[in-house]
Structure formats: C-alpha cells, structure tokens
Write a structure and sequence with these properties.
By secondary structure, the protein is mostly beta strands. It contains 1 helix and 19 strands. The strands form 4 sheets. It has a 5-stranded mixed sheet with strand order 3-13-12-7-9, with no helix packed on it. Strand 12 and strand 13 form a beta hairpin. The radius of gyration is 21 Å and the shape is globular.
C-alpha cells in the first residue's frame, strides 16, 4: 500500500513540475520556443564629432511562478554584447551569463540587452543565442535566436536629436524624459560612476568625471556616449 501511495505522490509531483513554464517575449508578443527573430533598425545618435548606434530590442522573460532563473546570452558571431538586468552593466563580452535572478510570477522582466558601437559601419548578421531556465529545474527552459542587421539591411533608423533622451555637452549631460527616470553612468569596464533620479528636462554635471567613453542606462534605455 505504501508503494501505491508513493507512486501517486510521485505522479502528482511530476504533473506539478510540468505545469511550470517560461517564455521569451518581444514587446507584448510571446515568442515560440526556439524562434529566430531579426532586428534591422538600430537607434543612432549623432553630434558634430561622434556617432553611436545601438540595437536594443524590447525583449522580456516571463515565468509561470515566482522563482530564480539562469539567463545566458551568447554572441555566436563573436562580437561583444551587454546584458544589463537590474541596471548593472557588466563589461561587454561575447558571452553573458547571469544566474539566480529572482522573477515574480507572470510579470515580464525586461532583459536590458543591447549591442552597440560607434562609427558609420554597423556589422552585418550579428547573431545572439538566448537561454533562460529555472535554477532548480533543468527540464523547463526557453531559447531564442536574435539576428541584428540581417544582410546589412539596417537602413531604417531612429535618430536621436538634441533634447531627446540623453545628450552629452561640455561638462554635463542633458536629459529629457517623460515623468521620472533613473540615470546611471558606467565606465566601459563596468564601474558605476554616477547614479541619479531625473525628472522632465534638465542637466547633470559631469565636471568631476574624466573625459572619454561611458555606458549609460536611462530607465529601460541604454547606450554609449562621450563625456566632454
């Protein structure tokens, strides 16, 4: 009799385990397991002496229950990428492996993934594979592949003019946001040098910072800029 009870309990546990689910989303669209998507529309910022481009698709991950997950992004074509969950941007690298991120049930979490660079030449066919799975259950996971600038088609772009989002001027950053947003600035090796909550339009002093290239996050946007 005990063996029967044990078998029933095991069956119930197996059924519950199978009820777990995890998915990637693009915006509000749930993506199918293993799907390949393309992003051919980078955002470009230009001023008189600097041009940057950023691919930042609105990718999210959602779980069916509150749990810790492991997330990996691997650039199979070798370029350096960034995965900035929680607003902390590690130094760009071909492989980003973030483990034990707690997620709430049925609440999409923004991956804050980006691939960025500067200059007028954008690499073609940059391919990144994503994996996310429950930390305590190897059998439940999701994968997807992202291809950026497929066949060199990055011709339709959004250009940020001064006053939109974040612009570097001499000794300061000019920002323009809707409502309230968190601004952070990092060195290219991942050290945070500025963190501030900003509202509406205004400026943040960079007089104490060394001139050079920095990575920023502004709300759910991120990019690279030159402190002047």
């Amino acid at each position: 009799m005990k063996k029967i009870y044990l078998a029933v309990a095991t069956a119930i546990f197996a059924t519950c385990a199978q009820a777990q689910s995890i998915h990637f989303m693009l915006g509000d669209q749930v993506l199918e397991e293993g799907v390949t998507i393309e992003d051919n529309s980078p955002e470009i910022y230009e001023d008189e002496d600097y041009t940057e481009w950023t691919f930042e698709p609105q990718l999210y991950v959602v779980t069916s229950e509150a749990a810790n997950v492991d997330i990996m992004a691997t650039c199979t074509t070798g370029q350096s990428i960034s995965l900035c969950l929680g607003g902390v941007c590690p130094a760009p690298a071909p492989v980003m492996n973030i483990k034990n991120i707690p997620l709430a049930a049925n609440s999409p979490e923004f991956l804050q993934f980006h691939f960025m660079g500067d200059g007028n030449v954008i690499p073609s066919d940059v391919e990144v594979g994503f994996f996310v799975g429950y930390s305590d259950n190897d059998d439940v996971y999701a994968t997807m592949t992202l291809i950026m600038n497929k066949d060199g088609k990055a011709g339709t772009v959004k250009v940020f003019e001064k006053g939109d989002s974040l612009v570097s001027v001499s000794g300061a950053l000019e920002y323009s946001v809707e409502g309230t947003s968190d601004l952070a600035l990092y060195t290219t090796d991942g050290n945070r040098v500025l963190k501030q909550t900003v509202i509406g339009n205004g400026t943040v002093s960079t007089a104490s910072l060394a001139k050079g290239v920095y990575v920023y996050t502004l709300g759910n946007k991120s990019g690279k800029l030159v402190v002047k």
